Amino acid sequence: MVTTENSSTARSERAAAERNRVLAGLAEGTVETAADLRVRGSAEEVADDLREVHLPALEEAGYIEWDRDAGTIEPGPNFDEVADHVEDLPFPDGGTEDD
Questions:
Q1: DSSP letters of 30-93?
Q2: Which of 14, 23, 57, 88 is the most exposed place for a label (fewest CB within 10 A)?
Q3: Average pLDDT for residues 79-90, to the nearest whole number?
Q4: How do 72-75 and 64-67 pair as beta strands?
């Protein structure tokens, strides 16, 4: 049985992992558009999550600049705050880069 608390925690962890993936991609130069991020789940689910949850949160924090019309993503004015910490971010599977 999954409790609401466990379900909420799992959702929060997944959301953090997706945001970390966006920031890591920008830091590594592998993300320039929202399409570059579509790797998990159905394309529609990922696009919805990115458009409705993750990209707006990262934009609001100033970590990215997102042009919704062009579909482009660039480092935002506060990106340097997180760029130095990208190597410290956990991988979604809980592993590390050296695994």
A1: --SBGGGG--SS-HHHHHHHIIIIIHHHHHHTTSEEEETTTTEEEE-TTHHHHHTTGGGSPPTT
A2: 88
A3: 80
A4: antiparallel
pLDDT tens digits, one per residue of 19-47: 888 888 888 888 888 777 766 566 777 77
Residue 6 burial (10 A CB sphere; 0-12, 13-18, 19+): exposed
Question: Looking up tokens 């592993």, which residue turns up?
Answer: 95
Q: What are the residues whose beta carbons fall under 8 Å from the beta carbon of 52, sequence distance 6 or more?
A: none
Instruction: Look at residue 79 in the predicted model and tell me its pLDDT.
Output: 92
Please tell me the distance from the alpha carbon of residue 62 to that of residue 23, in angstroms, as a whole number: 12
Pairwise CA distance, residues 38 & 45, whole Å: 9
